[in-house]
């Protein structure tokens, strides 16, 4: 049996292939080395020039050299040919060079299939709404390339694009059904576990001068919270993160008590309003969950540490939705463990003598009076709140309190705690976020990295741990109105935080609300969310049998609806076809009917045999219709000529 030769690639299908290759490979230029992006762009431009000039494609040996050189460059750039980065780079290289050897339809199909696969790799880098919209456009282009490969290359561009969009629209119900009902995978679907820990911003396990002021310069969202009832006052919005109780003279760190010492659970005596809320926390690769200070009801798989922060069992490496209940009026640990109090008094020796002397002069006062004296010093003397404090030396607290007097929240919290400990009052530094902004579009309180803050806690006999924010003594507007109101113009805050124009702020709110919905219902559609949705639909505790049955029933209904929509729709005849049908109908009345299988030229030949008087007119009409219907060139003149043939038919014989 002879093998049929491969079908040659139509000239008009090449632009669709190149457009699809550019749409799938182009956005990766942001992540590829510049030399590879230049090679990809040059290859696609070269192929487009060859197509336009109708020049032959380069010999295969030259392409083989380019492929080997590209693979060698990727191996040199990434020191490997395995892994996400080199794998994506090789796919992009192949996508750019494959069109240079595409002679047949089979080769073009390889490009389209490679394009569909390459689209998936974009989610390794971004899962945002713009990425999803771009991939939808790219999928339409690739589907249009498939249509062009199978005889549609001569059709207008918009006709092919419309057909591709219609095919994707018909697939949309099945996609939604499978998305909603197919068993979800726990954890992020896109990205590798080890790489998901990189490039995450947020609070760290230590704090030194400048660490929080550097974080403030990011407008990225740290988390969003939605309160079931009323929202607390802005001055009460302290979101607790890590607690630092170990100091080496420069850096504050979290301290872990020895394993042999007991770690009693904290005792919280809450009063006043209890606030129930749901938080959507961005991944920060740490265990703390940033609850409103202080949490009284915790989400599953979490616990309240002895230092009152809420800790998850594992670091938060994916966006997570959690529910809390918190009280802003409380007493915490009126009776504290001696080991924790001892740790809250520890100071390194032989540093900051002037600060120690000032603290010793207050030792005869009650603890509340000592704290009040320190706050009065910050409030009444010439201290300044700034993101650009001068560098400090070995005796950092001495230089800050008595020389520079310019600092950010971590400077004031650190100096206050040092003063308290030197005066014999147990104290520690708490880092977290303060404030937030309600988005009026979706009602979520948005807390950004620019809301990062540090404050202090002291332990008072009979009261327990009491929050004291020394920054409020220097810049009260920071707590009451936010970071923008507290800092002078010119401080390096992100532009998104300093938005003044009403329309820009509204646009930002709508965009962030849309992103929040996307994060919850698309990226964050995890097994828990799926169970919630199915419970609302009446499926309680669904198993795989009920899920499979639901999938089959809904997919069958969708197929039935699409079938009922497409089958009865009769294809509209174009003007040329309508004119030809009228001509044939007129001939049928004159005794010469056209069979359904009969083409225009065959029909004209039969008319010439049966009705010689109508032969010339029918031949003219059939020629016009054949050219309009099947030819590459036609226009209004031919259509008008065909319509004139209908009018020129002689009257019927009596």
TrEMBL record:
UniProt-listed PANTHER family: PROTEIN-GLUTAMINE GAMMA-GLUTAMYLTRANSFERASE
Transmembrane segments: 61-79, 108-125, 131-152, 164-182, 549-568
Example GO BP: proteolysis
Keywords of the record: Hydrolase, Membrane, Protease, Transmembrane, Transmembrane helix
Entry GO MF terms: peptidase activity
Pfam assignment, any one: Transglut_core
Protein name, as recorded: Putative cysteine protease
Species whose genome carries this gene: Candidatus Accumulibacter phosphatis
Domain Transglutaminase-like, first and last residues per copy: 401-472
